[in-house]
Design a protein that fits this description.
Blueprint: H1 2-20, E1 31-38, E2 48-55, E3 60-69, E4 75-78, E5 80-81, E6 85-90, E7 98-107, E8 112-120, E9 131-137, E10 146-151, E11 157-158, E12 163-166, E13 170-174, E14 180-181, E15 186-190, E16 218-223, E17 229-235, E18 253-257, E19 263-267, E20 285-286
Antiparallel strand pairs: 1-2, 2-6, 3-4, 3-7, 5-6, 7-8, 9-10, 9-18, 10-15, 11-14, 12-13, 12-16, 16-17, 17-20, 18-19
Length: 287
């Protein structure tokens, strides 16, 4: 009996001592479960959001995103988060750029976890079949005249190399690098005879180098960078030369009604905005 009592006392004492010993806290790195980007196929028009999902017993003390473009200088961006999910943004980069990036998580014990990834910026080819002359205004002073382009597609169209030709002879405007028309967007070339006007769109709007008449025969043709005709506006007949046929002056605009897809109709100005659904027929315009 004494032996049993002694054994029982030893067990109780051992349990009591065990209860007094605190559990040892795990110390080690957290786990980065996943790293993703949005959009998953970035173009030169996209800022890229990097998201990291983290798990672990210890609190995250710091989360940073490091990235470099074409093996250039590494940039560091702090990541915002709620303990398990962290995000940061890589700004848009040029088409073809190779972006290397890493997510680095540091927990309260000083342990770090790192995941490295990369992506290449790739733009969709511009669909020039979606590009149309949408509105033409030839009345008023040279600085008030304009030709508006519209993108009927969902994706951006790069205008570099796009040529606007007047009267089948003169290239009056050529698109430059950085000039872009977004999906279902407008690009307004305001001004004629090298006279810039207000209201143009694009990083550096430039006027046409030749005039635009509201009362003479004229043809404007737009060619893509491969010299394929994609859209045109034609009024009157060439006869012995474009501009030699006098016609009734149109003090309003010739606008596609409905916007982007319809015939050219006489309508009120809607520079850089949706055209009306209907307008007045002009029999001198070749549709």
């Amino acid at each position: 009996m004494k032996t049993l009592k002694l054994a029982f006392a030893l067990i109780i004492a051992t349990l009591a001592m065990t209860a007094c010993v605190e559990d040892k806290v795990y110390e080690g790195p957290n786990t980065i479960e996943a790293v993703s980007i949005n959009p998953d196929a970035p173009t030169s028009f996209d800022d890229v959001v990097v998201t990291a999902t983290v798990s672990g017993l210890l609190e995250v003390k710091e989360a940073v995103l490091k990235y470099s473009v074409n093996d250039g200088t590494e940039q560091t961006v702090p990541m915002a988060g709620n303990g398990t999910t962290f995000t940061a943004t890589i700004p848009m980069q040029e088409d073809g750029a190779k972006v290397k990036y890493s997510v680095i998580i540091t927990n309260e014990a000083g342990f770090t976890s790192t995941v490295e990834k990369d992506y290449t910026v790739g733009d969709k080819p511009s669909d020039y079949t979606k590009l149309v002359i949408n509105e033409v205004y030839g009345a008023g002073a040279d600085g008030e005249k304009y030709l508006e382009l519209y993108n009927n597609g969902d994706d951006p169209i790069k205008l570099q190399g796009v040529v606007i030709r007047k009267d089948e002879a003169d290239d009056v405007w050529v698109g430059e690098a950085g000039e872009i028309i977004m999906g279902h967007g407008y690009f307004c070339i305001v001004g004629a005879k090298n006279t810039p006007g207000e209201g143009g769109s694009g990083p550096n709007p430039r006027p046409m180098t030749k005039g635009l008449s509201a009362k003479k025969s004229v043809i404007f043709q737009v060619y893509d960078p491969n010299s394929t005709l994609v859209t045109k506006f034609e009024r009157g007949e060439k006869l012995d030369g474009w501009g030699n046929q006098s016609l009734t002056e149109n003090k309003l605009t010739w606008s596609r009604c409905p916007n982007g897809t319809g015939k050219f109709m006489i309508a009120e100005k809607t520079l850089g905005a949706k055209n009306p659904d209907t307008g007045e027929e002009d029999p001198t315009v070749v549709q």
